[in-house]
Amino acid sequence: MLSIFKPAAERLLKPLAYPLRRINPNVITCVGAVFPVLFFVCVVRGMLIAALAVLVLSAADMLDGLVARAQNRVTAFGGFLDSTADRFSDFVVLVAFGYSGIVGWNIVLPLVLLTYLISYIRSRTELAAGGKLKADVGIMERTERLVALFAGLLAYAIWPHITVVGYNLMTCMFAVLIVLSAVTVAQRVHFAYRHL
To answer: What totals of helices (H) and strands (E) does the chain contain, helices first?
Structure first.
């Protein structure tokens, strides 16, 4: 859904990509892996405002693709490395809430599983279709999940003691993400069933 705003976001980031034009895009991808680790450290240490800032900065992970296109160095390995870095980031960001105790592991782990299933189903569908399909369907893609996590963490940072049926606001956001992610898994399986 929010992927329709990607071209606009890339236009905003283009001035940032220009000074990096001489750097290998794969190096930018690897450096970008620092942001989820910083986010993890900030959340675990209770530095939630800093964590929010790092989450915003992690949007710069689009820079590697912009630089690759600017250099005409778009490669299959670059796409593979970027996707792998995204999976690393997804895992580290989500488990930060479990390690910090903000969200219980019984809520964190189902979302981790569904997050990986969403990504896996897309790549497996596209592979099975020989690259002739783009299987990025569903209501909860990576961008939506990161925006929701930002909103949930911001609300929790402002109102840490507010609860809904005994659960803090971040746990409630995880529960919403679990439901929407499960719907997305079903949507992608249905898409694969219809098109393969």
So the answer is: 9, 2
